[in-house]
Structures are given as C-alpha cells and as structure tokens.
Amino acid sequence: MSFSLSVTPTPPLVLPVTNPISLTTADIDAYRTNGYHVVPNLLSPSQLEQWRTIIFNAVQDRAEKKYKFATVLEEDHTNVDLDYYDNVFTQRVNLWQTHPSVKELLLESGSVIGKIAAELEGVDCIRIWHDQALIKESFGNPTAWHLDVPYWSFNSLHAISVWIALDDATVENGCMYFMPGSHKVTERHFHESNETFPEIKISKNLSDIFMVYPELKKYPTIPVPMKAGSASFHCGHLIHGAGANMTPGRRAAMTIQMMPDNMVFNGKQNILTKEQMDELEVGVSVFNDDERNPVLYRKN
Q: What is the CATH classification number for the domain harbouring 224?
C-alpha cells in the first residue's frame, strides 16, 4: 500500500520529548493482571507535533522500503497472505537506524518510556529490539489476533511494546484491541513447551490464533481507543490486534518493541540481516551490543 504524508523540515530536538509519568503500585498490579497499561497524554500537543514531524520525515526518507537493509530480505518472516497484509498498514521498521532524529527522539524518551516499561515488567534494563511506524491507511484491513515475542529472535516473558497514537485512534479507524489476561495462558503454554513459544503466522483469518490457544476463544476482548499523544504498553505475549480502518483518513502510530538485558539468540531471523544471522550462534550469542540494541533505560 502506498501513501503520502506532508512533512516539514526536521528542527532540532526540543526537550523534554514526553510528559513526566509516574506509575502507581495499582498501575503495575493491573498491568500484570491484564497484560497492558494505557498512559493518557504521554505527549503534550507540542511534543506530539515534534514526534509527528520526526517520524513522518523518517517514513518519507525510507520511501517504499520496509527495512533499511535489503539483506533483511523484504520477504516477510511473520505474515502470510501478503496481498492482504500489504493492505493492513504501511510499516517501516527500525527508523532509528535510518534517521538520526528518530534515534535521538527514542533515546531521549527512555527516561519515561523505558522506565515505565522496566517498572511494568520488573526488570532493571530495557533495550530497543526494534521500532515500527504503523500507518493504517484509509479502509485498511484489520490486524489479526497475535502475540509478538514468538516472531522475535529471543525468548522472554519480559518483552514489552509501547504503541504511541500519532493520530486519534478510534473504533472506526482501527484502534488496538487487547485480550486481557491472555498472557497468562500463553505463558503457561511457554512453560509447557520447553520454554518456547509456538509460532503461528499472522494471516487474514482473525481466528487463526485459536488453533494454538483454543481456550482463549471464550476470553473477552477490549477495544482501546486513544487520543493522539496517548500510549499503551503491552507485554510481548499478550494477545492483541487492531480493527479495520473504516474511514477515509489514516491512523498513524509509532511503536517501540523492547527487551530486557542479556537476551539470547534463538535462531529466528525476524529483523536481523543475513550478515547478523551468520555472526550469531543459537543459544550463545547475546543481544547486548549498544550499537545494535541501544539501552533505552537502565536502573541506577
């Protein structure tokens, strides 16, 4: 799916890049019960405009390339039914690698976004696994139910993502949906499957996830509409998806996928280049390279 955004030149970064946010014990307890936490007004109006300018410029710079490196292969390691998936959203991965302003923006957000992620997951260090701009174009297809970490190049029960609304996300234009508590079911399967997650490709069939987790078919689902500048955090093994965009306007979001320190390579390519794959040893190599997986937050 092609798209266009009107952009302005990227000005110097203005600090702070997020509002100050503090979690309560109740916030953390609810996250661990439900698997997600919503932060209204993570960004002030001026901060939101800065994020939009930087992200949209980076997306334009990337043009039609999903990844920076051709050696990641533009083939898809996660999705099937690619004609359908290409109309789910415009996806640009690891913009921090192509646009210095995105890297600066994300790293400056770490004292808030990274700290929230670390506190929700109860870890001392949070690194960037990758980022993604996700732009659900007008009349874009829904995003099928899935969980994230089975597709990633490490196994962890403490992976976490933040989803930042750059436009108002509504039920009509494809807001996120969560399946509260489903992370406890997928965690049980993880332990029963020798500390691995079964991988199921994301397809046009919303219900494919239930082939692996049939007990979740009776779980309630929650739409999470958000005003632009708000954000949601969800754990990497929570079942989630997004609705179709039933409007003539787009719905843009910026996401950061995060991991704890000392994650070990599990053999999956995901966003890795062929050269990186050749360098890594399954069960031995650790993703602690500050150049490839920058620290977003480390507890003092």
A: 2.60.120.620
12 lies in some domain = no
User: For the chain, first and last CA: distance in Å?
Assistant: 44
Q: Stretch 33-50: mean pLDDT, rounded?
A: 98
Q: Who wins on pLDDT, 198 or 170? A: 170
Q: Does residue 64 form part of some domain? A: yes
- Number of H helices and E strands in the chain, helices first, is 7, 11
Low-confidence winner among 74-83, 90-99, 239-248, 290-299 (lowest mean pLDDT) = 74-83
Tell me the CB-side half-sphere exposure of residue 262, using CA atoms within 13 A: 5
The total of structural domains in the chain comes to: 1
CA neighbours within 13 Å on the CB side: how many for 85?
15
pTM over 0.90: yes
Cα separation of 286 and 195, whole Å? Answer: 17
Q: How far is CA 38 from CA 10, 149, 214, in A?
A: 28, 20, 27
Domain interval for residue 81: 25-298
List, in order, residues 6 or more apart from 233 with CB less than 8 Å away: 31, 36, 37, 38, 39, 116, 117, 120, 160, 161, 162, 163
Query: What is the C-alpha separation between 110 and 75, in angstroms, rounded?
Result: 31
Token pair for 190:
């993880």
Structural domain includes residue 14: no
Residue with tokens 């979740």: 216
pLDDT at 251: 98
In this predicted structure, the answer to whether residue 171 has a pLDDT above a threshold of 90 is yes
3-state secondary structure of 76: coil
The pLDDT tens digits for 94-130 are 999 999 999 999 999 999 999 999 999 999 999 999 9
Asked if residue 2 is part of any domain, the answer here is: no
